[in-house]
Amino acid sequence: MSKRVTPFASRYCSTLDRLKEAIRRKRPGLLRRGAVLQHDNATPHSANLTQQWLQRYGWEILPYPAHSPDLAPSDFHLFGPLKRHLGGMAFETEDDRISELRNWFDNLDVDFFRVGINSLLSR
Fold this sequence. Notes:
Distance between the termini: 38 Å
Strand order of the largest sheet: 1-2
GO molecular function, one term: nucleic acid binding
Protein name: Histone-lysine N-methyltransferase SETMAR
Organism: Plakobranchus ocellatus
């Protein structure tokens, strides 16, 4: 673990505080066993202050592979339409959310991914 001190670490910890409170408000009980978080090795993420925050609240960090992109370029075509579809929806259970996602994927036009992959050629 890094011993680095950074002015951005306190800002990042404030962001984590807001995230924790938002989860507590929106999904009561979800944080009883802590949380699993994935972030990269940016200085604010690996700073001592951040590591102490994560330990205090029992949040686990998933390893982040070196030189790994967050998304495959082909995924960018997916998230805009998915976000528009899910916008404003609320789900009672995780099963409801999964069911809606499966339904959305099942009803995609057969050309959806072909168009997205072909659009990579023009970038």
